[in-house]
Structures are given as structure tokens and as C-alpha cells.
Amino acid sequence: MSRGLNLNDILQPVRTMPIQAYFGHGLHTLGLLAWLLPQTGAADVWVSSYSTSEPFLNGFVLQKRRSMVKESVLLLDQRAARKTLRLEMLMTNAFDHVFLGQNHSKLLLVKSRDMKVSVVTSQNQTYGDRAESTIITTDGAVFDVLMSQFVDMCGSAAVEIDLDSGRGIIAESGAAGTSAADS
User: Fold this and answer.
1) Closest Cα partner for 38 from 132, 93, 117?
2) In the list 7, 88, 135, 148, which could disulfide-bond 180, CB 3.0-4.6 Å?
3) pLDDT(166) > 80
4) Exposed/middle/buried for 94, CB within 10 Å: 0-12, 13-18, 19+?
5) Are 77 and 48 spatial neighbours (Cβ–Cβ below 8 Å)?
6) CA 135, 104, 5 angle in degrees (round to 5)?
7) Angle at CA 39, nearest 5°, toward 37 and 43?
8) What is the DSSP string of 93-150?
9) Which residue(s) pair with 69 in the sheet?
10) In terms of Cα–Cα distance, which of 145, 122, 118, 132 is closest to 18?
């Protein structure tokens, strides 16, 4: 997942270091999620990216099978939909809701019973040899703002695709989660 990079060598536990950053090679979103979940415990996870990949989706499914991911939502860019929809079966197994919109953001929001973690990164859910930047914070106010905006984006500027029943594009209010004010 992190291709040889030991995350404990570059990052501190999120409960003791409320904000941290990394710029360089080898820190991938899936590896970061796998590093975060044992710290937060089972959690709801929201992911935003331009595109996704088979390795990311397979790893996400593994986290769900380990009962580390409870509810999950994925927001991808509509321009990448042709590539993305080839991964339909994996997305169905990995995420409870999948939205397509005009999206270039890369977010990972993790909320457990007693912790909120926000990750803002330059990396798509793909693997490459380019340097990427990542900021991780447990600041609840940052999480609440990002979550509110994520929900707004899914509710007003994106469409949900129903992969399970093959109904295609559907409109389902509230599927992306609740606004920060409701949580």
C-alpha cells in the first residue's frame, strides 16, 4: 500500500499530533487510510478524488471486510467516468454511495465514534512515482467545514449512480451523509 514507506517513520499518531504534513514520494491514500483506521477504530469514510483505481478499490474492500469501514461515500469527477465505470463491480463492493460531479479535489474524511480526521492531499487514488503533498488534521472544525461542503457538492453539483440495481443515475437526498451541523 505504501510501497516500502513506513508511515510510522514520517507521521506521528493522530491522537498526539493534531496537524501534520508530508511532501514527497511513497505516501498513498490507501496506505494512509490503513494507517489511520487502527487509530480511529471502525469509522465512516468519505473519499473525494478525480479518479480511482483497481488497487485502491481492492484495498478499500479489504478494510470493509475487516469491519474497519462502516458507511462509505465516494465522489469522483464526471470526466473520469468512462474509466471509473469500468471498475463498477469494485466500487459497488467498496462504497455504499458513489457520486459523479465536476470534482478535482482529493479528500479523505474519517469519522469514528470519538474522532474526526481530515486529509487533504494532491494524490488521486492511483499509484505513481510523483511527489505528492498531504495534510492531516484532527481539528473538528476543519472536518465539519469539509464535510458540509462535501455533502453540498454531492447534493447540488453531482449525481449519484446506482451500481447495485443498474438503475444508472439517481437522485437521493442525504445519501452523501449529514451536514456537519447535524452530526
Assistant:
1) 117
2) 148
3) no
4) buried
5) no
6) 40
7) 40
8) HH-SEEEEES----EEEEE-SS-EEEEEES--SS--SS-EEEEEE--HHHHHHHHHHH
9) 43
10) 118
> By percentage, how much of the chain surpasses pLDDT 90?
58
Choose among 2, 27, 36: nearest CA to 116: 36
Alpha carbon distance 107, 118 (integer Å)? 7
Cell of 122: 494532491
The C-alpha cell that represents 94 in the structure block: 467498496
**Is the predicted pLDDT of residue 160 greater than 90, yes or no?**
no
What's the half-sphere exposure (Cβ side, CA atoms, 13 Å) at 111?
A: 19
In 3D space, the residue among 49, 130, 109, 122 whose CA is nearest the CA of residue 84 turns out to be: 49
Cell of 56: 485502491
